[in-house]
Specification:
Structural class: mainly alpha
Number of domains: 1
Order of helices and strands: HHHHHHHEEHHHHHHHHHHHH
Largest sheet: 2 strands, antiparallel
Radius of gyration: 22 Å
Number of strands: 2
């Protein structure tokens, strides 16, 4: 009851005309910036941090929350329409959203994403209000073996359900893991795969990899096949979801938050793993497996809902423990410290107006995001009417701008082109792109957690399975790997009977 009373007080703060204005500005700016490849919510919040020096803390963080959610939706927009993720959390949206757009259902894909963000963000924020202390307590107990097991689960899950074969999925994952090795060893300081270049010592940013594999690789692939057909304009389609679409997506919208929120809440979490796992779960549960890879709307609704709920989950450990789990919350933590506020267990007592006003603004931001972007879905979808030579020239331009903005180095543009050529080759030989991106995102963290777990156990492999949580995750992995064989055996048994 105390939490509900505090939340109502927070709505009183968030619904003032000035704070509503900051929320609307944040949503609009976040969506606009999220559309640009490579410039995600973290960079948006960082760029706008100096602008908020003259604002009171409540207004500043309400605007930050709007930017966070708006940028996540903006990233999914370019993923769906142009196969160009605006940030790493939007990678999965391209898998089914882009085929939908190419078949004239881009407006439906954007609508499913917008409603998914609303459902996931709303349910995630409700869970934030109700479960923040409990989830934070559980997160503290998760150790290195548990993290490594979760990452292995993500690797196995994605490589086993994508592509024409598991071998190709594994090959794509190995490409990503290799790219993730570039740079300095975090523990020994030794250079790995840098070829003596100081520019590679910090590694290859995941944004450059994602934009290179998706955007540049896609542009090169289209250019290589452009002369084979006249390039008919892609139809925009109807602007709203049909009853059949709603029947297929409402369960995915509700399942996504319960996958995304816990992963966002744990330290070193984020939206990447839950979006991958939500995609896998929806594909396993789908009654139309033949549509996957060709535009299954559940593959957009579930991961987008999980991503939005994960964004709410990241605020749990940041507000209650002072531990940022994503780049955005790290920037927000710096903003808290700029105002002389230290997040932690006492924050809810010392800065109750700020915290509950921020949480209430998350609900307000979700409503604004849905109200602004759902009617605009057909407008966004009309981007596909642009002639393909101009469209992909624009994609290459914004991809280059996004890659250059990451580090401000010309070397990044060269790396972007090389990775784009790798993406082109992967399309040529039927390798799925997503496992490669997953390898870059999670590979360095998986290596770090593996080495940390082995150090704790003095090099004993049993140290990887010395917790009930890790054993449970590895059991899930075994079931996931054995399921196709078990299903075939059951099918043969039924047919033989």
């Amino acid at each position: 009851m105390d939490a509900l009373t505090s939340l109502l007080d927070g709505f009183g703060t968030a619904l003032t005309p000035l704070n509503l204005l900051w929320a609307a500005i944040g949503v609009l700016l976040g969506t606009a910036i999220g559309v640009l490849p490579g410039i995600g919510p973290a960079m948006a919040v960082a760029l706008l941090l100096p602008v908020t020096y003259g604002l009171d803390p409540v207004g500043a963080f309400i605007m930050f929350a709007g930017i966070y959610y708006g940028a996540m939706f903006g990233g999914s927009t370019t993923s769906i329409l142009l196969n160009t993720p605006g940030e790493s959390a939007a990678v999965v949206a391209a898998l089914e959203g882009n085929p939908m757009a190419r078949s004239g259902r881009g407006a439906q894909a954007l609508a499913a994403a917008a409603i998914g963000h609303f459902a996931g963000g709303t349910i995630g924020t409700v869970l934030l209000v109700a479960l923040a202390p409990t989830v934070a307590g559980l997160a503290v107990d998760i150790g290195a073996p548990d993290y490594f097991a979760l990452m292995v689960l993500a690797f196995v899950a994605v490589t086993s359900v994508l592509g024409a074969s598991r071998v190709r999925g594994l090959a794509s994952l190995l490409i990503g893991l290799t790219l993730g090795l570039v740079g300095l060893d975090g523990m020994t300081g030794q250079q790995r795969l840098t070829f003596g270049s100081l520019h590679l010592a910090d590694g290859i940013d995941v944004v450059i990899v994602a934009v290179g594999l998706f955007a540049v690789g896609e542009a090169l692939w289209v250019a290589a096949h452009l002369r084979r057909g006249p390039g008919e304009p892609i139809p925009v389609g109807r602007p709203w979801l049909s009853r059949g679409d709603v029947r297929r997506t409402w369960k995915a919208w509700l399942r996504g938050p319960f996958i995304g929120f816990p992963f966002g809440a744990i330290p070193a979490g984020g939206a990447e793993i839950p979006t991958f796992l939500s995609y896998v779960a929806e594909k396993r549960l789908s009654k139309r497996p033949d549509e996957w890879g060709r535009g299954a709307i559940e593959g957009v609704a579930g991961p987008e809902s999980a991503a939005s709920a994960s964004a709410a989950g990241t605020l749990v450990s940041m507000l209650t423990l002072g531990l940022p789990t994503t780049a955005v919350t790290a920037v927000m933590l710096a903003a808290f410290q700029q105002y002389g506020i230290q997040p932690g267990p006492l924050l809810f007592e010392r800065e109750a107006d700020l915290v509950w006003g921020l949480i209430a603004s998350l609900f307000v931001g979700m409503v604004l995001l849905l109200a602004l972007n759902l009617p605009l879905a057909p407008v966004w979808a009309r981007l596909l009417r642009i002639p393909r030579p101009y469209l992909y020239a624009g994609i290459l331009f914004f991809a280059a701008v996004g890659a250059y903005a990451v580090g401000g180095e010309v070397t990044d543009l060269v790396i972007l082109l090389v990775i784009g050529l790798i993406g082109f080759g992967m399309r040529r030989y039927g390798l799925p792109v997503l496992p490669a991106v997953l390898g870059v995102v999670l590979g360095p963290g998986a290596e770090q957690q593996l080495r940390r777990a082995l150090q704790i156990s003095d090099g004993s492999v049993t140290g990887l399975v010395d917790t009930p949580f890790a054993v449970t995750v590895y059991g899930t992995i075994v079931v996931l790997l054995a399921w196709p064989a078990l299903r075939r055996a059951v099918t043969r048994g039924r047919s033989g009977a």
